[in-house]
Design brief:
- This protein has helices spanning 2-14, 19-25, 28-34, 40-64, 68-86, 92-120, 126-151, 167-176, 197-213, 215-226, 231-248, 252-259, 263-280, 284-310, 318-347, 352-372, 374-378.
- The chain has 386 residues and is an all-alpha fold.
- Helix 3 (28-34) crosses helix 10.
- The chain is globular and about 50 Å long.
- The protein starts with a helix and ends in an 8-residue tail after the last helix.
- Mean pLDDT is 81; it is low at 379-386.
């Protein structure tokens, strides 16, 4: 019973991990109308600034934290308080400041939750547990994108009320999770401890995933608003990504066994196909279909990368490895709009549909690269679904 309550407390924290960005993704269009003097890149910063804040926090916390429970509670407090205060901001700079606080919390929650699950779960059960974590976090993403889209119909400020959901794990964790302390010797400097090359390969792949995959969320709301699609319909279309991920993340271990050495390459290939579909039409239906597919393959991609990361970990370095790989994804997510805009300027076409077509080509290139680098290495480490 105690173990079940512990997992319930951690799952309630996992529910929050994707909400930070998804709440913003559904209201970028209304924010553009609320701050008409701001450039599109500044509006997109409301989404991506969380990623850069999470990048630094996630990377450093893996090396600095010793008490995981205390760190997790601090992260949830930052997440909840920063999110709720964002809805009170009267200017874009103040809004961005509160988003940074939220990002600090998110950057702590994600690696610590995965590390704690790794600590309490036997190695053979980790792939299935990670799939379940992915399902729970995507449920939170659905709640965020769909709820924010609907609440934005009232006011964009109303969407940030959803951050009050952080109060749930704040009530559950103190009584149902024991403190896990990372044991370190006096002369043990984690900053100089060698990190396996496999972790750096995973970090590079995850960086490109964050940079390319995030383009759909940073641009869709603006694009659909420009084409007369309401924030409610846009929120529903964007939330289909989380729906697809939630329905299929738990199948990832079986899918890894079935695809063997070509898993990540296949995910990239399917993401390329979804970007081509999105670029064809801004209708809510076509975007919803494409985002559903994006969620299925993007969600399974994330579970695969997290599982590969934890295969190298023990209690003392699980958070460190998750921090390195996860922060690479966050850095890619932050740079996403700048890469998207710069690519358009270089190629002489700054339209969003053209940018999505470029994303499709980039995803195809990653599929080829992973076929010869990442997947070949992964095929030597079979994943159990049991």
């Amino acid at each position: 019973m105690k173990n079940r309550l512990t997992k319930l407390a951690l799952f309630s924290a996992a529910f929050l991990t994707l909400m930070t960005s998804q709440i913003a993704s559904s209201i970028l269009g209304p924010l553009k109308q609320a701050f008409p003097e701001a450039h599109d890149t500044q509006i997109q910063l409301v989404y991506t600034i969380v990623s850069i804040a999470s990048f630094f926090t996630s990377f450093l916390c893996g090396f600095l934290i010793r008490r995981k429970k205390r760190a997790l509670l601090f992260g949830i407090v930052c997440f909840t308080l920063g999110g709720l205060l964002t809805g009170t901001a009267r200017s874009l700079p103040v809004l961005l400041l509160f988003r940074v606080v939220t990002g600090i919390g998110s950057g702590i929650i994600t690696p610590v939750v995965n590390g704690l699950f790794s600590d309490i779960t036997p190695p053979k059960e980790r792939p299935r547990t990670l799939g379940l974590i992915g399902t729970i976090s995507q449920a939170g993403s659905i709640c965020a994108s769909l709820g924010a889209g609907l609440l934005a119909g009232i006011s964009w400020r109303s969407a940030f009320v959803l951050f009050a959901l952080g109060l749930v794990p704040l009530c559950l964790i103190p009584h149902n999770l024991q403190e896990i302390t990372v044991e370190r010797k006096t002369n043990d400097n984690l900053l100089t401890r060698p990190v396996p090359a496999r972790i750096f390969v995973l970090a590079v792949v995850n960086f490109f995933f964050g940079c390319i995959f995030s383009s759909s969320f940073t641009n869709l709301s603006i694009w659909m608003t420009e084409n007369g699609i309401s924030s409610g319909k846009g929120g529903i279309a964007i939330s289909m990504a989380a729906t697809g991920a939630m329905l299929f993340c738990w199948l990832t271990p079986r899918f890894l066994q079935w695809m063997k050495g070509f898993t990540v390459s296949f995910f990239w290939l399917m993401i390329a196909a979804m970007y081509l579909l999105i670029s064809r039409s801004p209708s809510a239906f076509s975007v919803g279909v494409a985002m559903f597919g994006m969620g299925v393959f993007g969600g399974m991609f994330s579970v695969s990368v997290n599982n590969a990361t934890l295969q190298t970990a023990d209690k003392d370095n699980s958070v460190i490895h998750m921090s390195i790989v996860g922060s690479a994804n966050m850095l890619g997510g932050f740079l996403c709009p700048y890469v998207f805009s710069l690519t358009g300027k270089i190629l002489g076409n700054g339209s969003i549909p053209f940018g999505f077509q470029i994303n499709a080509l980039e995803s195809l290139g990653m599929a080829v690269a992973c076929l010869f680098v990442f997947d070949r290495h992964m095929s030597r480490r079979p994943v159990s679904s049991r």
